[in-house]
Amino acid sequence: MCLPWNTARNAWEVLNIISKEKLERLYKKYESRKYVHPDPLEFLYAYDDLNDREIAGLTASSLAYGRVAQILKSVSYVLDIMGPSPHAFLQNASRAFLRERFEGFRYRFAGGDNLAAMLSGAKQVIEQHGSLYECFLRGLKKNDETILPALSFFASELTRKENPGHLVPLPERGSACKRMNLFLRWMVRTDAVDPGGWEEISPSKLIVPLDVHMHKICFKLGLTARKQANMRTALEITSAFKKLAPDDPVRYDFALTRLGIRDDADPNDLFNL
């Protein structure tokens, strides 16, 4: 993707050029479900029950890498097996049953064993804490500046007795945890696009879901000079966005990522709106 701007000298210069007003116009233009497809977020809209939505969200976000057509195909395959209530499916599923049901699953680096391990870990978390939400809340302290400590706790609980491999990244290893931060954006924020449900977590603590595309945009904007899309970079970019939206630094993530994944979205919109 060819972006229409040069790298600025520092974040303050960028924040003067890319004003809050322009980002707000971009947000309002793309804040609509008609711009969601193709995005695994679309699967969450089928679940009104929060217990089902969080399991569907964990599943969809864990597979959100690679070519989008294959992401949607793989997520659809898994959710179809779990049926109308992923929560009820897990309640009645043993570890052996999960391995059997997903034996034929394969998506890039993830096989059926990885997927079964993640879902088994989710079931164990639900049995111990009551829900994925309650587990995450137990790791979150009131004075935490970001959700990072809670994310570390959540990931450790999901992997306590299971090894889902890369499907559940561990923040302490330096990963940007893009897919997990994407899941949290979906579950914490509530607007026309993000369905929310985890209401006791403040959006102000969220971290930008940083992938190659988002890193490229933010690097060219001068919001970071770091070359690696890791957790340190994600926190630096989040801090820059907090200068514009302190209560919701991930507010513009959906709109900005439309500029690279949809044919009907123009990167020049960031300047021309």
TrEMBL record:
It comes from the Bacteria. InterPro entries: CHP02757. Pfam families: DUF2400. This is CHP02757. It comes from Desulfonema magnum.
